[in-house]
Write a structure and sequence with these properties.
This protein has 93 residues and is mainly α. It has 5 helices and 2 strands, in the order H-E-H-E-H-H-H.
Length: 93
């Protein structure tokens, strides 16, 4: 996967959980760091919540509010979600 990311064939990585990304924490952190250096977005678990909310008829603003109230971090570790990021995630469903 890393090779394909370096070849610009992948620009987004969605993972069900952090445990699916590597055999140990050090490898996981190294892979995530390498991917972010390449400009690759890595998203864990929160994607399911966005899909479920979107498919349940919640608006982008409602989803944003819910993510922020729950303290779920953005892909860059921030606490404020952009509507564009949520829209692009939900549009992929």
């Amino acid at each position: 996967m890393i090779r394909r990311c370096r070849q610009k064939k992948i620009d987004l990585v969605l993972l069900k959980s952090i445990s699916r990304s590597a055999r140990n924490t050090v490898d996981c952190l190294n892979y995530i760091r390498a991917l972010r250096t390449l400009g690759i977005v890595v998203i864990f678990g929160v994607v399911k919540q966005i899909y479920d909310s979107f498919l349940s008829g919640h608006s982008i603003r409602m989803i944003k509010k819910k993510l922020e109230e729950q303290g779920i971090l953005t892909t860059k570790g921030g606490t404020v979600w952009s509507e564009a990021a949520i829209r692009s995630t939900s549009a992929a469903s």
